[in-house]
Design a protein that fits this description.
This protein has 405 residues and is of the alpha/beta class. The chain is built from 13 helices and 19 strands. It folds into two domains: 173 residues, 3-Layer(aba) Sandwich (Rossmann fold), CATH 3.40.50.1950; 214 residues, Rossmann fold (3-Layer(aba) Sandwich). Helices cover 32% and strands 24% of the residues. The strands form five sheets. The chain has an eight-stranded mixed β-sheet, with helices on both faces. Strands 2-1-3-4-5 form a five-stranded parallel β-sheet, sandwiched between helices.
Length: 405
Amino acid sequence: MTTPPSVLLGVAGGIAAYKSAELLRRLTETGHSVRVLPTASALEFVGAATFEALSGHPVHTGVFADVPSVPHVKLGQQADLVVVAPATADLMARAAHGRADDLLTAALLTARCPVLFAPAMHTEMWEHPATRANVALLRERGVVVLEPASGRLTGRDTGPGRLPDPAEIAELARLLLERPDALPRDLAGRRVVVSAGGTREALDPVRFLGNRSSGRQGYALARVAAQRGAHVTLVAAHTADLAAPASVDVVRAGSALELREAVLAAVKGADAVVMAAAVADFRPVALAEHKIKKGSADPDPLALTTNPDILAELVREREPGQLVVGFAAETGDASGDVLHHARAKLARKGCDLLVVNAVGEGKAFETPDNAGWLLGADGSESVLAPGSKALLASRVWDAVAPRLS
């Protein structure tokens, strides 16, 4: 039997501490062994009993509990991952300067595994030079400090500093367990555009032509790029009720024509464009004004027309130096296998990189995991091994970042 990953969940004393209970639930339900290390202030917001019940482990804040087992050393040494959510300005300041005045900060000093901080604080605190210096110092030492979300804070305040969604933190935690070096800051200063989800082509006020895309892969691409330092615009078609990634500008689109308009507007001045959206190839010639009624006779044939080829247009109209990445969902047939059709599509579209997914039989669509191949216009081909969609996203950005240089 495989030993479950050992995760330390640090919880600092901020109002967002209540969200750590959901994060804890997500981590335990996906097979992780989680030990919660709250600060004394965190227990003013969420009681120890909550963390103990959800984790199945005792909760302590000080270094003098269970002294014979030396927890302030052993916990960090034995962890596969440390996640601190929320990470307050005070906690990050203490961690950056090597303080070890409670169990959490002591464990951070002994940990040699990946460490993930999810900040949560008021905008003024996040933007203060002292906090920015501490974040930079932590990142310089290899700590992953997430960009916070922007939104409602305590009281009536709104702005950057909101804790990222627990589902997003859990996804990035899994990514670091799969691949500890998945979130370098190699896209800092870059502008990227990602499209995601499936377009819908209306037949009447009720029905539409669509596809099975959930948008998860495009959202993972946007999420990973933002946490690697990029300024990200996500053009989102219809998705599986996904929360907006932290620190990402989201533009909504419905049909293929709407997506085309939004993408062409967003790519001006962008360094890279990744077309992960599943764009409908066809749309009805005419939209029925009223719901098409079911009668005794067979319905009239549906007349379709071809939608614009957005990927080909992006390649044709791109700015100098702009990198274009396409996606291909393929199946093999009598004329060739998946890679045969993918290579032909890469040559036909003219993009720099093409991510290829074999679809069908529970693959790619509507699943949390993905796999495939990455084809380059320079003739390169690499396998994208099975794993989370965030892992595949990290591999794509690995290929994009050096090409931007």
